[in-house]
Structure formats: structure tokens, C-alpha cells
Fold this sequence. Notes:
This protein is an alpha/beta fold. Helices cover about 40% and strands about 15% of the residues.
Amino acid sequence: MQRTPLIFRFGDRELVCDGQCLIxxxxxxxxxxxSDGGEHASTERAVQHGLELLAQGAAWLDIGGESTRPGxxxxxxxxxxxxxxxxxxxxxxxTDALISVDxxxxxxxxxxxxxxxxxxxxxxxxxxxxxxxxxxxxxxxxCILMHLRGTPATMRSLTxxxxxxxxxxxxLAQRLEDAVHRSGLSPEHFMLDPGIGxxxxxxQSLALLAGxxxxxxxxxxxxxxxxxxxxxGQVLGQPDPRQRVWGTAGAVAAxxxxxxxxxRVHDVREMSEVVRVCLAIRSA
Length: 284
Ligand code: PMM
């Protein structure tokens, strides 16, 4: 597949996104994450799990301390930091892999960047905390701008789109312009994500998964996060997120074949194999 390589910058490093579809492993350090069930609540266990994800094929770890599950309770910044900062600090000493912090809070992002994270994964696309842009600017961090309407608490009623792929593209382009303006950083510091399952019905999530190429026309690398999500549950009639691994494989294959730059997944070993085969087919 012919495609333009895109540069993603963070601090003094850069990632050339040239069609590889890297794996981002999810490391949720929360007692209430819908699919981790609090298994990794202690620092050492979380660090061990992170190292396992890297050994299984993740190029990048996304570390979060607050569940964004629909209706989940908000976690105060102090508690969020208590969960993620020690894990980031320890992992940074033990690996050179890319680390992002999954947070909407500027205070948590600042502490995570100081502890060694390279990128802020802000599911609000910089809409939740007015100080986030300044935090990014301070360390010239990278940032993932995800598309969300409302908040995780209110998003389920905000699914009115004229045409979901076109509307999400328009809104993401606005978020990017706003983020560049407010942070003073170049667009190369930002990656885009349509926010599968965030203010989207199952049908809308499926449409976005079919529209990766259109998202990439925005000129920035594209991250897709379909892992174990409820649209898979609706297609398969499978209420248990842990039983959605094969469904996730179907979605990840669609992303890899259409040129997503990064997929955010829980089942790293399995999805690494899916991606490797898809990339081999794409380059055949
Ligand atoms: N999904 C979740 C959390 N963070 N971040 C990005 N950029 N994209 C996503 O799709 C995304 C995210 C929710 O899933 P989890 O609770 O299993 O981590």
C-alpha cells in the first residue's frame, strides 16, 4: 500500500508512521476497568504486566488510572497520580518502549511526563482540562487527540451525527487546529483517534472502523481502539468483554488492512499475530 509517511514528535524523539500498524498495549491501573477487573492494581503487578505486554509484541504502553467506561465515577487527580506515576517511573527505568498516560487531567499528565511518559492520551481531545495544552507545551510532549462528545458520563446521549465518518473527521480537524493553537506545538505532536464507542452507537463505531483511510486523510497518524468494546458484544451477542478476543481480532484486521498506524489493545500476543499477517498480505 502506497502511503505518505507521517512524523509523530514527542520531546526529542520521533516516530515515523509509514504503514506499520504498531501495537499499543493497554495497562489499566484501576480497580474498576471494565475488562481488567482490577487485576493490576498494585504497582509491581502492573509493571510486570507492562513488561509482559512488551515481550508479547507491544511497541507502546498506554497507562491509565481512571476508567472511561460509560457512567464510570471520576477519579480525583491525586488518586489517579498515585496509581499511574510509580508504574510509569518503574517501567521507564526498565524499558525504552514508548509510554503514554491515559488521562484528561493536566496535573496527572504533568506528573506522568515528569516520571518518564512520552505522550498524553487525552480521550477528551483537550476539551476537559483548560491547562492540558500548557502541560504539553512545557515538555513538547506528544498527544493523542481522541474524538469524544460530552464526557464519559454524558456521552451516551450525544450520538446524533448527520454522517458519522464525515462529522468525526470535521470535529477531529477542529480539535487538532485548536490544540495546535493553544499549545503552540506543531501538528506533528498530535495523533488522531475517532474514539470507538465514545459517543458512538455500535453502528457508528462499525462505520468508523470501515473509514480508517478517510481519517488518515486528515494528515496525522491514526490510532484505533476497538479492543473488547461493546460494538463487538452487539455484533456477537457477547456480554462478557473477556470473551470478545476473536471479535477484537476481526476489528484489528480491518484496521491493519486499511492503514491504521496504531491499534490500542488488551490482547497483545493475539493481536500482534493478526497485525503481522495483515501487513504481510498488504505488502504481498
Ligand atoms: N478507549 C478506552 C480508554 N482510552 N484511549 C484512546 N486513545 N482510544 C480509545 O479507544 C480508548 C482510550 C476505553 O477502553 P479501556 O477501558 O479498555 O481502556
